[in-house]
Amino acid sequence: MNPSATSASDPSTASRVGHLVPASLVLALAAVVAWLSYTQEPASAFLFPRLIGTVMLALALWNFIRAAMGVSKVGQGIAVTTWLNIIPGIALMAVFVFFAAKYFGFYVASTAAFFLLYSGYDPAPHTALSSWVKRVVITAAFMGVIYALFTLLLKVQTPRGMFL
Question: Cα separation of 145 and 152, whole Å?
Answer without folding.
Answer: 10
